[in-house]
Design brief:
With 394 residues, the protein is α+β, with helices and mostly antiparallel strands. It folds into three domains: 4-148, DNA methylase specificity domains (Adenine-n6-DNA-methyltransferase TaqI, Chain A, domain 2); 151-181 and 353-394; 203-348, Adenine-n6-DNA-methyltransferase TaqI, Chain A, domain 2, CATH 3.90.220.20. It has helices at residues 53-58, 113-121, 123-131, 140-144, 153-192, 207-210, 253-258, 308-317, 319-324, 338-342, 351-389; strands at 4-6, 11-15, 24-25, 29-32, 50-51, 69-72, 85-87, 96-97, 101-106, 147-149, 204-206, 211-215, 231-234, 243-244, 249-251, 269-272, 284-287, 292-293, 297-302, 326-328, 334-336, 345-347. The radius of gyration is 23 Å and the shape is globular. The N and C termini lie close together (11 Å).
C-alpha cells in the first residue's frame, strides 16, 4: 500500500469567483463558466462573459492555470454537483473561474499535477466527492480533507503515464460514438429535412397532438427502502447517451407502490425539461428497457402513427429549436415550458418512409453497439488500472 496524506498538505483547493451583474462586461478579461465546457471536458471555443482588468487583478488568485483540476461545486440540483470534472487546457488558462468551479492545484514539488488529475478520475475518489456534497454545494475544505495516496514523484509520473494511455483509448471511442450519432442525425435531415423549415412539405402535427407526456418523480431519500432495488431510475446525469440501458440510481418495487413514481416502457424517448444543463444542451435519449424517471424529465409517448424510434430522431433534429425555447424559472433554474414543447413540429411521413429510416437506424446501431462495447471495455480497463495504481500494485 502507498502512504497517504490529506490533500490539503500538497494541494491548494479553492473556489472561483462569480462577478456580479454590475461587474460583467461585453469584452475584457474572460470568465470561465460551467457552460463553456462541453460534455467531453473541452472548451467550447469562445467565452461569452468578461470582466474588466481591475476585477481580474483583484481576484488574480482565482485565475485558471493550465492542468488545474476543475470540479462543478454548485448547482440547483444536488445530482449535478461533482458530475463535471475538467483538466484545464491552454485555451482557458488565465480566465477567471466562476464560483461554480472548485479548483485543485498542486502546491508542492512532491505532487505531480497529472497524477492528481487521474486520482480525481478514479471511481473511488468520485464516490468520496459525491458523499461530501452538502445540499447543493461541494466545499473546498471537504475536498481538501480527502486522503491522497502519495508515492514518490517518479512513481506518480509513471502512474500518470500509464493512465494517460488508457484515458486516450476511452476518449477515442467516445469521439467515435459522437461521430456515429451525428451520422444518423445527418441522415434524418437528408431524408426528411429540418422539421422547423419542412422543405419537403411533409405532413406534420404539433408534438402535443401526436404524443402525451409522462412525468417523473423522486421518491423520498429519507426512506432508504425506496432505493435498495434494481429498477433503473433515470435522472439528467444519465442522459449523456442516446440509448438508456441502465441508470446510476435504482429504486425498489416499494417506491412504485407507495409514491406517484411511474414505469416508463422501453422504446420511449426521454427529454430533460428542467436543470442548468439546459443552458447549453437539451438531452434526449431513448429507453431500451423499462425505467423510471425523475421530476426534471418527461417521457414522450407517441401515438401509433409515429414510430418511437423515428419520433426520437425527430426530437434530436429539433434540439437547437428546443434550446431556443428554454427560459428561466423564478428561482433561476432553466426550464422548458411545456406548452412550447408541445408546439414543436413533428414530421409524419408515411409508414414506409418511417420503416425504412428505422431499418437504417437498427443496422447502424449494430455497428454502434460494437463501439459501445469497446468504450465500456476501455472504461473498465482505465478503472482497473487506476484502482491498482493508487493501491501501489502497478
Amino acid at each position: 500500500m502507498i502512504d497517504s496524506v490529506p490533500l490539503r498538505e500538497v494541494a491548494a483547493v479553492f473556489n472561483g469567483k462569480t462577478p456580479s451583474k454590475a461587474e460583467k462586461r461585453s469584452s475584457g478579461h474572460p470568465v470561465l463558466k460551467i457552460r463553456d465546457i462541453n460534455e467531453l471536458g473541452e472548451f467550447r471555443g469562445e467565452f461569452d462573459s468578461f470582466v474588466d482588468h481591475g476585477f481580474a487583478e483583484k481576484y488574480s488568485k482565482k485565475t485558471v492555470k493550465r492542468d488545474d483540476v476543475l470540479i462543478l461545486n454548485a448547482a440547483h440540483n444536488s445530482n449535478y454537483v461533482g458530475s463535471k470534472m475538467v483538466k484545464a487546457s491552454s485555451d482557458v488558462e488565465g480566465a477567471i473561474a466562476t464560483g461554480e468551479w472548485l479548483l485543485a492545484r498542486s502546491s508542492t514539488k512532491a505532487l505531480d499535477q497529472f497524477y492528481l488529475w487521474y486520482w480525481f478520475q478514479t471511481p473511488q475518489t468520485r464516490f468520496q466527492i459525491r458523499s461530501r456534497v452538502k445540499g447543493i454545494h461541494l466545499y473546498p475544505r471537504d475536498v481538501a480533507d480527502l486522503s491522497l495516496p502519495l508515492p514518490s514523484i517518479r512513481e506518480q509520473r509513471h502512474i500518470a503515464s500509464i493512465l494517460d494511455k488508457a484515458d486516450a483509448i476511452r476518449k477515442k471511442y467516445t469521439r467515435l460514438l459522437m461521430l456515429s450519432d451525428g451520422l444518423i442525425r445527418s441522415t434524418f435531415l437528408d431524408w426528411f429535412g429540418d422539421p422547423v423549415q419542412n422543405p419537403q412539405s411533409l405532413p406534420q402535427k404539433q408534438l402535443s397532438e401526436c404524443a402525451r407526456f409522462i412525468s417523473g418523480a423522486t421518491p423520498s431519500k429519507q426512506k432508504p427502502q425506496y432505493w435498495d432495488g434494481i429498477f433503473p431510475w433515470v435522472s439528467p446525469k444519465d442522459m449523456k447517451v442516446d440509448l438508456i440501458f441502465d441508470a446510476e440510481d435504482h429504486v425498489s418495487d416499494l417506491a412504485f407502490a407507495e409514491t406517484n413514481l411511474k414505469r416508463v416502457p422501453a422504446n420511449m424517448p426521454l427529454i430533460v425539461v428542467r436543470g442548468m444543463i439546459l443552458v447549453h444542451t437539451v438531452p434526449v435519449a431513448l429507453t431500451k428497457r423499462e425505467v423510471a424517471i425523475n421530476q426534471d424529465m418527461k417521457a414522450v409517448n407517441f401515438d401509433e402513427e409515429i414510430d418511437p424510434v423515428f419520433g426520437f430522431w425527430c426530437l434530436k433534429s429539433l434540439q437547437e429549436k428546443i434550446l431556443s425555447e428554454v427560459d428561466t424559472a423564478a428561482h433561476g433554474t432553466k426550464r422548458i415550458d411545456m406548452s412550447r414543447l408541445g408546439a414543436l413540429p413533428i414530421h409524419i411521413p408515411g409508414d414506409n418512409m418511417q420503416r425504412e429510416f428505422v431499418d437504417f437506424v437498427e443496422k447502424h446501431n449494430a455497428t454502434r453497439q460494437r463501439l459501445v462495447a469497446s468504450l465500456r471495455n476501455s472504461q473498465d480497463l482505465f478503472a482497473s488500472l487506476a484502482h491498482r495504481a493508487f493501491r501501489g500494485e502497478l
